[in-house]
Automatic annotation (TrEMBL):
<keyword id="KW-0963">Cytoplasm</keyword>
<dbReference type="InterPro" id="IPR008927">
    <property type="entry name" value="6-PGluconate_DH-like_C_sf"/>
</dbReference>
<comment type="pathway">
    <text>Amino-acid biosynthesis; L-proline biosynthesis; L-proline from L-glutamate 5-semialdehyde: step 1/1.</text>
</comment>
<dbReference type="InterPro" id="IPR053790">
    <property type="entry name" value="P5CR-like_CS"/>
</dbReference>
<protein>
    <recommendedName>
        <fullName>Pyrroline-5-carboxylate reductase</fullName>
        <ecNumber>1.5.1.2</ecNumber>
    </recommendedName>
</protein>
<dbReference type="InterPro" id="IPR029036">
    <property type="entry name" value="P5CR_dimer"/>
</dbReference>
<dbReference type="InterPro" id="IPR028939">
    <property type="entry name" value="P5C_Rdtase_cat_N"/>
</dbReference>
<dbReference type="Pfam" id="PF03807">
    <property type="entry name" value="F420_oxidored"/>
</dbReference>
<keyword id="KW-0560">Oxidoreductase</keyword>
<keyword id="KW-0641">Proline biosynthesis</keyword>
<dbReference type="Pfam" id="PF14748">
    <property type="entry name" value="P5CR_dimer"/>
</dbReference>
<keyword id="KW-0028">Amino-acid biosynthesis</keyword>
<dbReference type="InterPro" id="IPR000304">
    <property type="entry name" value="Pyrroline-COOH_reductase"/>
</dbReference>
<comment type="similarity">
    <text>Belongs to the pyrroline-5-carboxylate reductase family.</text>
</comment>
<keyword id="KW-0521">NADP</keyword>
<feature type="domain" description="Pyrroline-5-carboxylate reductase dimerisation">
    <location>
        <begin position="150"/>
        <end position="254"/>
    </location>
</feature>
<dbReference type="InterPro" id="IPR036291">
    <property type="entry name" value="NAD(P)-bd_dom_sf"/>
</dbReference>
Amino acid sequence: MAEAMIAGLIKGGLFQPEQIIVANRSNTERLQELTKKYGIETTHNKEKIVQDATTIVLAMKPKDIKAGIDGIQDHIDDQLIISVLAGISIETMTSLLGKQAAIIRAMPNTSATIAKSATAIAASEDVTMAQIKKCQSLFEAIGICKLVEENHLDAVTGLSGSGPAYVYFLVEAMEKAAVEVGLEPDVARELIVQTLLGASEMIASSDKHPSQLRKEVTSPNGTTEAGITILQQKGFEEALISCVKRATERSHELKTMFSEALVTTDK
């Protein structure tokens, strides 16, 4: 996710390479890769980055948040902190920092790699409107960005955070079906991808509800109706709703687990 953001920010002209500095704990080879590919500065000295930065992006694994924050607390003043760590609440980060800070939680998805992420952000009370707009501009460089309440981020995680995997699963099933009805895999893949792109563009460009667009494709007693009937019989809609709800619940469970584990470790 960090690399996707770097690529989007540079490609979109929002930042010059020399304005971006990246640190990690010990993987020098990975830092050299990023320097070679994007022309950015890299270091293992996270304290120096924090001192010099106006915006700090936390993009380590959630379990490494305490180690990532250790050593930089004394250097946090009025910088904006953006976290893309799933399951780590603003309250937990504030506790680990030991002070109030301008913190924004962000939930992008993996489509950030191609600048098509659907990102939602939630801000602490210490964040200014100017900082919110700055954060939105960062994520709009890799897709779209919506401001939500923090208690809605679990739902965002279950919907758009995990959403690309649901679509990939759908494509897997459509590819298997295509082969079973006699199509060549490569032909099926191209047809499926274009079908998804076209349907997405139709939804994005039309004022009509998706249910209306579906009805317009579904002629009485036609092929589409026959297929939709099977999806309804198999509980397709119920399965998807349950899928998003369970992923949302799991996001909440992980948030609670991380919070409790970090508090325990901190004690």
